[in-house]
């Protein structure tokens, strides 16, 4: 319950990062076959709540571009599963994420991205990585960081992207037989903490200092990269 709530709190506060927090903790105690569908269901609920409450803050023009490009990138990701070594690809992505996060924390920073058309390459890369290695988040998070969105818009727009993609993942888990009675029992048991974490994360998000928000984002990006290197 605490691990799921911690992941939800991270997601509700920043718009991403739930798997970074929850997956390692739950996998150690329950195993991957329980952690994967449980976290996916909790995150789907989180994104539904964020989209319903903050849909006016979503950059819909960027969201549909990211979704379209992600869909186009998925076939290439499926090819990577068959032909590219998973460890090599994850290692390269991990190094890139850590390097980007460290670079962004230094006084030298990449210029802000103004054109919405940049959503296409980042979304395409997200679709490739999502289909191949179930890590569609990092490219989209980097794109959102480069757009310099304020915290509320950052969180809402990422949820607008993660909601449909997460729904596809959850349906796939159900069709694959991962929706066991244990998973549903754990989700129901965690539901009060999940709802509290969603409410608390929303309050924290609205109170975040935009200057410090960027620092938190880059630290989470570095954490994602490190986990990809050691996983």
Number of domains: 1
- Total of DSSP H or I helical runs spanning 4+ residues: 10
**Terminal residue distance:** 23 Å
Low-confidence segments, given as residue ranges, are none
* Helix/strand structural class: mainly alpha
Helical fraction: over 70%
Order of helices and strands: HHHHHHHHHH
- Output mean pLDDT: 83
Shape: globular
What does this structure look like?
- With 231 residues, the protein is mainly α.
- It has one domain (2-230).
- Helices cover 83% and strands 0% of the residues.
- It is built from 10 helices and no strands.
- It has helices spanning 2-14, 18-30, 32-54, 60-83, 86-105, 119-133, 137-146, 151-175, 181-207, 210-230.
- It starts with a helix and ends with a helix.
- The mean pLDDT is 83.
SSE arrangement:
Blueprint (H helix, E strand, L loop, with lengths): L1 H13 L3 H13 L1 H23 L5 H24 L2 H20 L13 H15 L3 H10 L4 H25 L5 H27 L2 H21 L1
Fill in the keyword field for this structure.
0% strand, 83% helix, 10 helices, mainly alpha, globular, 231 residues
Describe, in short, the structure shown.
With 231 residues, this protein is mainly α. The chain is built from ten helices and no strands.
